[in-house]
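ok here's GPN-loop GTPase 3, seq below lol
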Amino acid sequence: MDWLEEELGGYDDDYLIIDCPGQIELYTHHPFLSTLVRNLQRMGIRTCATYLIESQFMEDKYKFFSGVLSAMSAMVNLEVPWINIMSKMDLVTSNTEDSGSGRNGIRATKDIARYLDPDPLLLVSAPGSRDEKTERNSKFHALNRAIVQLIEDHPLVSFLPLDLTNPDSIETVLSHIDYTMQYGEDEEPKEPTNLDEGDFADLE
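and the structure came out like this:
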């Protein structure tokens, strides 16, 4: 931490992005990242965590909810302002018949909202369906029901869609991050331009 503080000492009012490793255990139960965050805050650096999950996770509802639960665990462990991002949304197509338009060609646009604001009922098949009967007999049935209840009771996770081919999508994500960590809040307001009577006449 002494080395890190020395390296960061030359920055003032800069926007720093720390790209962390992808091993989820570093965020869910290992103390290193939480220690790093506390030291950054002690140095007066405003911190916001962004958790990325790829849109390909929508191909498998169980894999997706594994990502949701990992996000919840990391949020509780790090205790910092937090934004969840659904990345690679350019691989999602609105044409369900276009299977060659990306890894997620089978994912219809109308279904995306259930993933961006996770709908725990995605884990449960329709009543009376063949899948529902299979799930009822599964040894994981009670676990799935418990996960559904947990997410319903603590709706902490939602996702911002990020499409790197869409400038508006990038701007939306960036503005959320800025707002979350109050970036630029300490800047002085700009002085108004001095206008004389002739300028006002021109404006009219």
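fwiw The mean pLDDT is 75. kinda neat tbh
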